[in-house]
Write a structure and sequence with these properties.
single chain; 75 residues; Immunoglobulin-like
Protein backbone atom coordinates (compact mmCIF):
# COMPACT_ATOMS: atom_id res chain seq x y z
CA UNK A 1 0.00 0.00 0.00
CA UNK A 2 1.25 3.49 -0.83
CA UNK A 3 1.48 5.52 2.35
CA UNK A 4 3.38 8.66 1.32
CA UNK A 5 4.81 10.50 -1.67
CA UNK A 6 7.45 13.26 -1.59
CA UNK A 7 9.35 15.33 -4.14
CA UNK A 8 12.65 13.84 -5.30
CA UNK A 9 15.54 14.17 -2.85
CA UNK A 10 13.24 15.54 -0.11
CA UNK A 11 13.42 12.59 2.26
CA UNK A 12 16.18 11.53 4.63
CA UNK A 13 14.54 8.85 6.79
CA UNK A 14 11.12 7.21 6.98
CA UNK A 15 10.00 4.84 9.72
CA UNK A 16 6.74 3.28 10.90
CA UNK A 17 5.79 3.07 14.57
CA UNK A 18 2.99 1.35 16.46
CA UNK A 19 0.81 3.20 18.96
CA UNK A 20 3.22 2.26 21.76
CA UNK A 21 6.03 4.16 20.04
CA UNK A 22 7.95 1.05 18.96
CA UNK A 23 9.48 1.15 15.49
CA UNK A 24 8.04 -1.66 13.39
CA UNK A 25 9.60 -0.92 10.00
CA UNK A 26 12.14 1.30 8.27
CA UNK A 27 10.83 2.16 4.84
CA UNK A 28 12.91 2.13 1.70
CA UNK A 29 11.85 4.72 -0.88
CA UNK A 30 11.09 4.07 -4.53
CA UNK A 31 11.93 6.72 -7.10
CA UNK A 32 8.95 7.51 -9.33
CA UNK A 33 8.59 10.22 -11.96
CA UNK A 34 10.65 12.90 -10.21
CA UNK A 35 9.45 11.99 -6.73
CA UNK A 36 9.70 9.42 -4.00
CA UNK A 37 7.03 7.01 -2.76
CA UNK A 38 6.96 4.89 0.37
CA UNK A 39 5.13 1.57 0.22
CA UNK A 40 4.43 -0.78 3.13
CA UNK A 41 3.30 -4.39 2.93
CA UNK A 42 1.95 -4.56 6.50
CA UNK A 43 4.97 -6.47 7.83
CA UNK A 44 7.53 -5.67 10.49
CA UNK A 45 11.31 -5.45 9.93
CA UNK A 46 11.80 -9.21 10.05
CA UNK A 47 8.89 -9.97 7.73
CA UNK A 48 6.18 -10.94 10.23
CA UNK A 49 2.68 -9.72 9.31
CA UNK A 50 1.40 -7.11 11.75
CA UNK A 51 -2.14 -7.07 13.06
CA UNK A 52 -4.86 -4.64 12.17
CA UNK A 53 -4.46 -1.33 13.92
CA UNK A 54 -3.12 2.20 13.81
CA UNK A 55 0.48 2.88 12.84
CA UNK A 56 2.32 6.15 12.31
CA UNK A 57 4.67 7.06 9.47
CA UNK A 58 7.43 9.43 10.54
CA UNK A 59 9.46 11.13 7.81
CA UNK A 60 12.50 13.35 8.22
CA UNK A 61 13.26 15.48 5.18
CA UNK A 62 16.63 16.58 3.84
CA UNK A 63 16.17 20.08 5.25
CA UNK A 64 15.52 18.78 8.77
CA UNK A 65 11.73 19.03 8.82
CA UNK A 66 9.71 16.14 10.19
CA UNK A 67 6.19 15.00 9.49
CA UNK A 68 3.93 12.25 10.79
CA UNK A 69 0.99 10.55 9.12
CA UNK A 70 -1.51 8.10 10.56
CA UNK A 71 -1.78 4.77 8.72
CA UNK A 72 -4.65 2.38 9.41
CA UNK A 73 -3.89 -1.28 8.66
CA UNK A 74 -7.00 -3.34 8.11
CA UNK A 75 -6.65 -7.05 7.51
Amino acid sequence: MLIAALPADAWRRAELFDTGGRRVQRLVPRAVGGGTEFHWDGRDEVGRPLGSGVYFLWVETGDGRTAARRCDLIR
